[in-house]
Amino acid sequence: RIQKQEFVSAGRGLSFFNGYYDDNGRRVEGRQAAGPRMSLTGQVFPVMAGIATDDQVGKVIASVRRLLKDPKTGGVRLNTDFGGIQHSLGRAFSFAYGEKENGAVFSHMAVMYAFGLYLRRRPEAGRAAWSTLYRMATDGATAKIFPCIPEYFNASGRGMYCFLTGSASWLIYLLLTQVFGVRGEGGDLVIDPQLTRDDFGADGTCAIRTHFAGRPLRILFVNSKRLPPGRYAVGRVEAGGEPLAFVPRAGGGIRLTRRTIGLLPAGRETKLVVNLVRGL
To answer: What is the torsional sign of CA 77, 26, 115, 9?
Structure first.
């Protein structure tokens, strides 16, 4: 029903999901006389939940880029300008556009948008969303904050309400489990990276530290040919120079069984070297 009824056209080649009805039962998003209305929240949950088809995900990305990307900061806004107070929609629209819930670059939803895009195997678009937050947060002259993830950035790019723990948790969760692709599955360790070329250093490597099954791990990804995501696969995993057996996953990446991880030393950190090779 959401795929068919709530995927709306807003003209000019724009199509995206409607996520809201107002207090009078009217659809909020889509084509309006004053211009298209769109919210980021209305896109995040259909994408993240797997409701959106692959074609719809592509149209959402294009619409977000055209309607919600702030031309000044590059951040993804919460919504388009609905034009004044909206009594039937609630308190958010009592704020000036670009402040708080009315069209600010809201860290929580921007990170969740990126997370949903990685889930749908769109790492380039996902990286653009979270890396823009990083760039904004580390631009001290504009953000006027110490580097952190604030609740939101206002219309002038200033970071407000430092820091929002929900956004921080989602960002760590995103980077560990989707960008580096290190996560648990049925008790086993999955390594399913969606790292882009920009994530690797000049030597074609990047690394992350984590714990799994009581074992401290430093996982080093080697992409010597600087292949883009979707073009590489895990070719070999080594610990102490010795190869570890793994099982390829149908959805991407590989699985290391819990028994394999359990054979690693528990008292010191183990470096796992993950070699990325050209995929089939």
So the answer is: negative
- Residue 192 and residue 121 in contact, taking contact as beta carbons nearer than 8 Å: no
CA distance 222 to 145: 34
Instruction: State both tokens at 268.
Output: 């010191």
Cα separation, 56 vs 73, in Å, equals 26
Q: What is the pTM of this model?
A: 0.95
Q: How far is CA 61 from CA 96, 124, 126, in A?
A: 26, 11, 9
34 confidence band (pLDDT: 50, 70, 90): confident
The tens digit of pLDDT for each residue in 185-217 reads 999 999 999 999 999 999 999 999 999 999 999
Residue entry with tokens 């009805």: 21
Q: What is the CA radius of gyration of the chain?
A: 21
DSSP state of 45: H
**Which amino acid is residue 34, in one-letter code?**
A
